[in-house]
Amino acid sequence: MSKKIHFTIVILIFILILLFGASHVWAIQQEESPFTMGEIVVTASKYPEQLLDSIASVEVISREEIEASQSENLAEIVANVVGLEVVDYGNTGGIKAITIRGSSPEQVLILIDGQMANDPQTGKFDLGLIPAEIIEKIEIYRGPASALYGSNALGGVINIMTREGEADEKVTAAIDMGSYKTQKYAVSYQDMEEDISTFITGQYYKTDGDRENSQLNKIAFMGKLSNKLDEQTDLDFSLRFHDYNRGLPGSTDYPSPEAVQEDRNIDLNLNWQKNEEDRDMNAVAWFAFHRVFFDNPGMFGHTGPSIHKTYTAGFSFDTTLYNFSFSDDEDTDSDHILTWGGEVKSNRVDSTDIGNQQAINGAIFIQDTWQANEDDDLKLTAGLRYDYNQLFGGQFNPRVGLNYRLEDEVSFHASVSRAYRVPTFDDLYWPEDAYTGGNPDLVPETAWAYEAGIRYLNEEGDMKAELNMFLKNASQLINWAPDEAGVWRPSNIGSARVNGLELILQSELNEHFSVQANYTYLNAKDLDTDTQLKPKHKIGVGLHYADQVGDNDDNLTIGLDGYVITGRPDDLESYYIFDANLSRDLTINEEDEQKITLQFSIKNLLNQQAELVSGYPLQGRTWLIGASTDF
């Protein structure tokens, strides 16, 4: 079937769904749209600032947008974001990593409530492990951010803030059923009593998958207590747990019908915040345990399972001083926002493959944002972070940038920064045999990055437009390739140049409809081989409808989101993924205002089975139908 026919079918289906829902709702006006643009960000500067004042390109995804998308996990939530590409190994339980502006997955830092979540053994993070139910907000920093966040931020940062309890005590229960015998059961509890809020959620999910040995069974849990110690101080404690059992079917050329993997994570997080009139202070302490059990009895030369245990502990703090002055002269109007802080973390691995390994990293940073006076439209930012790694010594990473308000609703930003990434434990210590081996002589990857952009955000917050241009020169890249003896091992022989542009358009057309469109052009070249590294073009689109229906103002939302990837390297085929969803509230008890929410979604509507990773076709069209209610 041709692409033209495919797109025609999408539009027809969407129109039919829209007409079905709209026949009940045209007379009702929605008071607040769930797609209002968020304007406050923290990831780009470590303190809250308006998006128009940021010197970096930052994307914000709110809780309302997450719920409307009916996404199952973090990978599905961010798949349509400009500048990002999900590296997906196909089936539901397949590893789902992320790249930003042509980076590798190891170069993208994942933060969860201020805690680094990347696996120190592989450097990656599986986005499929984070259920959508625990996420309150996501901020995506596109571009190198080592001046604030150190290693693993060479490509960018995905910062996840988890949910907290709300004012009204309630229990929410949900059940979903779908393709390939998919079942999902979820329950959550939230409350706020005096100065303590509670949020607890858990889910059980299972599916048979679309290929042999692609089954997935998972249990996920999060509990969070938030205590308001006084008017200025908050203390949050959270516990996250997941048990993730999956079959790994392998590639179509080399299937592995017996391979299985179990991931078990326990994360403890303590977060302290104090917000005074002219000063903010934050401190985070965390501990994470991750156990991976992998076994493939059908593998040639199989000698038993591989078991990897990772222990990560850390502490970070930062302080922001507003209206800071370096001079005692009271007549000066010059204003500074001074931010400084530090971090120490320990990564330890106990592995049947690479043995016992450990590395400790300490860091300090400082950043100053200067504005000549309150009425000046120009803000200048300069920052520097120093990291000392037990294995690789010290790294200085500076960043300078500016933000200029051209108009009240338009700003220009530009920045220059340096970034780095240390090798993973697997890179350094992979066991030596006739086929593969690690390289303990590796040095960190480094890059210089340049960015400029213009951003428009209207006062009402219902229209956004952004254009970014970027360039990154990376060196000492770690490549796995055969050495002179034919053994695959990593070495610092890679250099790359990545340049491109991003265009973002988002608008609420009226009280019911919102649309979005984005385009990414990416020219990522391996300078040593003059080969293309990443797809050149990505086009994302979205159309959403929201209203309140009937006598009880029940919510109705309808959405269609998708993206097209073209210009892929190695003659890989272009592909396009579209998802459709419908959500409808029904009042079942008018006196108690109790509602039941019905949801229906279709993922991969056009049944694309392209290979995002060679040999691993995407799962085809799937559907999920479910219901939830509050008690």
What does this structure look like?
The protein is mainly beta and 631 residues long. Helix content is 6%, strand content 58%. The chain has helices at residues 3-22, 63-69, 74-78, 146-149, 425-429; strands at residues 40-41, 49-50, 57-62, 84-88, 96-100, 108-112, 115-116, 135-142, 156-162, 170-178, 182-193, 196-207, 216-228, 233-247, 260-275, 279-295, 306-324, 335-351, 355-371, 378-389, 393-407, 410-421, 445-457, 463-482, 488-508, 513-526, 531-532, 537-549, 554-566, 575-589, 594-603, 611-613, 616-617, 622-630. The protein has a 22-stranded antiparallel β-barrel. Strands 3-8-9-6-7 form a five-stranded mixed β-sheet. The model is unreliable at 3-38 (pLDDT under 50).
How would you describe this structure in keywords?
mainly beta; 631 residues
Write the layout of secondary structure elements.
Layout: H1 3-22, E1 40-41, E2 49-50, E3 57-62, H2 63-69, H3 74-78, E4 84-88, E5 96-100, E6 108-112, E7 115-116, E8 135-142, H4 146-149, E9 156-162, E10 170-178, E11 182-193, E12 196-207, E13 216-228, E14 233-247, E15 260-275, E16 279-295, E17 306-324, E18 335-351, E19 355-371, E20 378-389, E21 393-407, E22 410-421, H5 425-429, E23 445-457, E24 463-482, E25 488-508, E26 513-526, E27 531-532, E28 537-549, E29 554-566, E30 575-589, E31 594-603, E32 611-613, E33 616-617, E34 622-630
Distance between the termini: 47 Å
Determine the fraction of residues in helical runs and give it as a percent range.
under 10%
Radius of gyration: 24 Å
Provide mean pLDDT, rounded. 90
Strand content: over 45%
Low-confidence stretches: 3-38
**Strand runs, count:** 34
